[in-house]
Amino acid sequence: MLYGKEHVQRYRETDGAEGHDWNNTTVLLLTTKGRKSGKPYTTPLIYQPHGESYVVVASKGGDPDHPDWYKNLQVNPEVEVQIKGDTFRAATRTAGSQERPELWRLMTAAWPDYDEYTKKTDREIPIVVLEPAR
Q1: CA spacing 20 to 30 A to 49: which of 16, 39, 83, 101?
Q2: Which DSSP string corresponds to 4-73?
């Protein structure tokens, strides 16, 4: 099973032929700029399309702290996204309270474990909207 750096490498080498479809869901590659280092960091994340945008969840498996990629985009909200062979720049924002319930349902339909992750942490797990800058 692909995971972490190997997942990113195989995804890039095959334009997502390996790695996009993963454990009965879909994965994109999100590249953020390190908030301290300024270096690029790429993370494979479960996603779902929503209108012209894409949605990801900053769950970190229910960890009490936000994932590093989410902390990075809070400082540098411009990211690079790869979906299969398509790579593009995107602006990011955390979903607001009005849209959150709909987006949470969308994402838990794609990965039901998100509901379990909420039981492991006191933090509200952020839902991030990726808006392509095409």
Answers
A1: 39
A2: HHHHHHHHHHTTTTTTSEETTEEEEEEEEE-TTT--EEEEEEE-EEETTEEEEE--GGG-SS--HHHHHH
What CATH number does the domain located at 4-132 have?
A: 2.30.110.10
Residue type, 42: T
Q: How far apart are CA 73 and CA 75, in angstroms?
A: 5
pLDDT digits 0-9 by tens, 4-43: 899 999 999 999 999 999 999 999 999 999 999 999 999 9
Closest listed residue to residue 127, CA positions, set 108, 116, 119: 108
Phi, psi of 51 (to 5 degrees): 60, -130
Domain ranges of the chain: 4-132
β-pairing verdict for 127-132 and 21-22: unpaired
Q: With the C-alpha atoms ordered 68, 82, 120, 98, is the resulting torsion angle positive or negative?
A: positive
Q: Is the pTM of this model over 0.90?
A: yes
